[in-house]
Amino acid sequence: MLTKKKFRFSLFDFFLYIFMIIVVLLILLPMIHMLAVSFSSDVYVMQGKVGLWPKGFTAKTYGYVFEDDRIFRSYGNTILYTVVGTLVGLAVNIPAAYALSRRDLWGRKALMGLFVFTMFFSGGLIPIFLTVQELGLYNSFWVMVVPFSVSAYNVIVARTFFETSLPPDLWDAAQIDGCGNLRFFFTIALPLSKAVISVIALWTAVGQWNSYFNALIYIRDENLYPLALIMRNILVTQQIQSALGTGEAALIALRKANLMRYAMIIVATVPIMCVYPFVQKYFDQGVMIGAVKG
Prior knowledge:
By secondary structure, this protein is mainly alpha-helical. The chain is 74% helix and 0% strand. The chain contains 14 helices and no strands. Helix 1 (2-38) packs across helix 13 (247-273), helix 3 (60-66) packs across helix 13 (247-273) and helix 4 (69-101) crosses helix 12. The relative contact order is 0.13.
């Protein structure tokens, strides 16, 4: 009987590993292909002969991308938006989650209901745009950081973490020693919550790094554009040139646009991917503990 159970468990593990390998390949192979295309000659790319290894190796595609001064400026903007936006996001979401995790908070269920309500309903684009404009945030640095810093999902995940990881006895013991709410939050709750803080920080940073729509709607000054929007504008310009051009000029513009598309994906993706290894050791614990929404 024990042997039969062990065989079933091993068979389940086998299929689980096969499934995970397939998932990894589905994610990894497209990235390898894009990297190979970005370093390949446009002749081989147009002929569709590039697979997982570059053909006609060349780095001129990245020269096309970085020859535009707007790329470096937008890179700086995106890094600044990501750093400041992540700090602001943590500053508003983590304290809110901790407060909602406290069972002695008056009106806790009603407040939680309001947070959940915003996950399904919003005021719409026009009311939000008018609100942003009235607050004086339109076409400013802070419009990318402040108005959309609160995430109901992040609050729910962090609140669940606090509820399951900080036992009430810990708060009772702290009170006996004369510890108040603020001191308990900063000296006890936060140091014990590195896992969920790292997860929320990573989610917020990725969202800020990839932010495109908000900049398109609320920013008009090109000096404030993030990387995603600048790359979109460069790519659209190349496509328009290829569409309006004739003969060899149109063909060159089309080849350039096709190559730049892949290079831009690599340029925009790799930096934020480099952040993950630094928070990976907290990631699994934070996600699993905050996964059950109560």
